[in-house]
Amino acid sequence: MNKSILESVYSPETFKEMGHRLVADLAEHLDDKLNEKTHKAIHWNEPDDELHFWQEFLKHGDKEELFKEITKRTTYVHHPNYIGHQVSPAAPITALTGMISSLLNNGMAVYEMGMAPSAIERVVTDVLCNKIGYSKRAKGFLTSGGTLANLTALLTARRAILKQDIWNNGNRSPIAIMVSEEAHYCVDRAAKIMGLGEQGIIKIPATANFQMDTSVLEEKHQEVRAKGIEVFAIVGSAPCTATGMFDDLDEIAAFAKKYKIWFHVDGAHGGAGVFSKKYKHTLKGIEKSDSVVIDGHKMMMMPTITTALLYKNGKYTNATFSQKADYLLTESEHEDWYNSGKKTFECTKTMMSIHWYTLLKMYGESVFEAYVTNLYDMGTHFASIIEKEPNFELAVKPMSNIVCFRFINSALDLNEHNRLNASIRQKLLEDGEFYIVQTKLRGIHFLRVTVMNPFTTEKHFNRLLDKIKDFAKNA
Ligand SMILES: Cc1ncc(COP(=O)(O)O)c(C=O)c1O
Fold first, then answer.
1. How far apart are CA 297 and CA 268, in angstroms?
2. pLDDT band at 322 (very low <50, low <70, confident <90, very high)
3. Which of 93, 175, 179, 299 holds its CA 20 to 30 A away from the CA of 204?
4. Does ligand 1 have an atom closer than 6 angstroms to the CB of 243?
5. pLDDT in tens, 390-421
6. How far does the centroid of ligand 1 lie from the alpha carbon of residue 307, in Å?
7. DSSP secondary-structure letter at 396?
């Protein structure tokens, strides 16, 4: 058997040599983008052109150029003109922790396959529980993304609240969750995966400000109960994705307590606000929840994908996928907090805890405070600039770093406005100097910005608005 190819794959020398070169190239990329030596946030290519490029590259491309081409053909999240989706420009040190995780490749399903990262996971989730304001009974774990974490939390809620054992026996009676109509679509998807069907997702209308209208909770609950449907959970968005507006967690907590249902907070985006003295108020009431989701790759500067799922009562960490009710033992000496695979959807998962721990160890909690506070401040600042512009309109005064706005012209009707703003966004994408996104709110097409880069300033906002005005003029 010819082993030489495998020897070359595992060569420490090649790894060292390529690694040094790659780190140097990525550092140059960082410098280039952060310091705006390149003025574009994206070099847009049509999907079919991109596909063709990579098909050809596999056959004829120069190996030496592979990493450079991948880097070039991405969206530059470290560029201050990247103000699009809610993905953070990863703190460079977490690229290094990513490398540790990839090379050491401990699979994390059981303690032996990840001793340090399993213990580290406990440390970081304990820190998060504490910041939320949970008591010492609280515990959590890390999993792959907000979508999976929300589904896991709802499965736990079903197990914890309902008398019937749906996990083992299947569902025989109608059950439901309550959630704002503005919540992220993954909550809807989770409910569908759980077999709740349309009738099992009670959409609570939002107020004019896109927050859950808690004044209709009682009425909605009565309507549902009159149909014989049992509600077992309510989800608060902190904040909702499209507009970045926070539901009133205090109000939802009171409702959940009254009816003894599970209160879950989807803090995928804004849960990190627990670190910000200035913005912690957006999460008022979060400590009364039964579970909270916080994404590390959104407002905590980590690489995709890592999410914390925290439970007020730690015994539920083992409940979700347990065949028997033995999870009730968790508070005894039999508790095994260190075997991740029992708690998570994943069997194997990455050593994601080391991103969290490294940021905490190297920079302290204040790094999260600085990041969240700075970005929320900039969201407010951008909105204040828009408010002064006669040709722009805000969808709503922002509560976070997500800002929805549109270009307006009094001569246009709704459809014309929608077409104009959609075409502005398409032009921005093709032009590439800025990367922003778009959303439809109550039939109105809005441009949407999420300030994710702490180096995005007023200068960038003004340049973006000038550019939009130009595109609008020439539309
Ligand atoms: C409020 C909210 N929940 C959940 C998600 C999904 O999280 P993930 O992309 O980590 O699966 C998002 C993503 O944007 C979100 O904004």
1. 9
2. confident
3. 299
4. no
5. 999 999 999 999 999 999 999 999 999 999 99
6. 10
7. S
